[in-house]
Automatic annotation (TrEMBL):
Residues 408-428 have a biased composition (Basic and acidic residues). InterPro entries: Benzoate_Transporter. It comes from Nocardiopsis codii. This is Benzoate/H(+) symporter BenE family transporter. The chain crosses the membrane at residues 12-37, 49-69, 76-94, 100-119, 126-144, 150-167, 174-192, 212-231, 252-276, 296-318, 325-346, 366-387. Residues 392-407 have a biased composition (Low complexity). It comes from the Bacteria. Residues 392-428 are annotated as: Disordered. Keywords: Membrane, Transmembrane, Transmembrane helix. Pfam families: BenE. The lineage of its organism: Bacteria, Bacillati, Actinomycetota, Actinomycetes, Streptosporangiales.
Amino acid sequence: MRTLARRVGRVAPVPAVAAGLIAVLVGVTSSAAIVFTAAEAAGASSREIASWMLALGVGMAVTCVGLSLRYRAPVVTAWSTPGAALLAVGLDGVTMAQAVGAFLFSAALITLSGVTGWFERVMDRVPVPLAAGLLAGVLLQFGIGLFTSMEGDFAVVAAMFAAYLLSRRWLPRYAVILALVAGVAAAAALGTLDLGEVTPALAAPVFVAPEFSWQVLVSVGVPLFVVTMASQNLPGVAVLRGDGYRVPISPVIGWTGVTNMVLAPFGCFGMNLAAITAAICTGPQAHPDPNRRYLAGVWAGVFYLCVGVFGATVASLLAALPPTLILAIAGIGLLGTIGGSLASALGDERSREAAVVTFLATASGFTLLGVGSAFWGLVAGVLTLVVTTSRRGARDGTPTGTPAGTAGDDRSRGGPDRTGDTDRAREA
């Protein structure tokens, strides 16, 4: 009996299991509503939404377990929360087949970046302040939605916001979860919560053949790639490096891309290194021995698989929640990301104007030539950066045509250490 207990303790130490479970709970409760909104924007049926959850759960399970065991490090992956927010905006009017084509295109770019080692070079070409401005512009309507939803259901949303603020003071790690609990309790008390249709059910894969539209690839696929790499993979690398895990990044990025490509026809829109929940599994709370913390990554994968398998239940539960509650929890879950994005976008004075242009153009939601505002916001920001830095360079002797925030400018290129600090600040 003691021998069995020791073996169980080695495979499933309590701190590692708890860390994996908390990471999954935080990740799912803070952003599942955004994934649900993105799927609805593409016109997904309830079966297709369940398939999305299944594909994402299986993808994260395979990569968390496989990569953690392969490298003996807590490699935690996640779906791209900023990517889901972008899709919730960009997939309006797009067919499911076209959306899958964009998922495949983005995943192929991620795979190529990992396999060829282009990751660092590609990201050097996209100044971090501009990528942050792009992300902030995409997320703006979710932040505003937190407060506009109060007009429709003040009691529920106000209870959620109050719970969030109090939790940020005393239980910051569980602030989003407790806000959701408060919202559900308030909705139940007011009789706006209908759980009668929620029944435990297993998700089934739904295959959607991809359709490639150049407008959708440019307006959705390219921004999805940029946001995932800049806002998720970069800080994900920083978390691993910050806790002393020298995992080879290019193969890890490549495997997330390959897994994404295989599962994209079933709804896996974007996978990446976890940027917000990873620190739960890489720090001392996951295990006192750093060499044993990889088990937290393994158990996170196990719990993600459970979420995916019961994706139909998750989808029906989200459908039963009042729309204002969904909108409010999405806004609350993204407050930290919006704040971090704005801080990163405006931190360097030399690229601040270009970042503001990117932010405003992206947030405007305008469409040109069938291509959405996320792409044009990035184009406008790059154009502004090139023109303004060239003008300044002519005055102060800086080489013209060298944008602030690219290689050689440590303050604005958003290296792993600075990005990782931002990510940790969000979790605090």
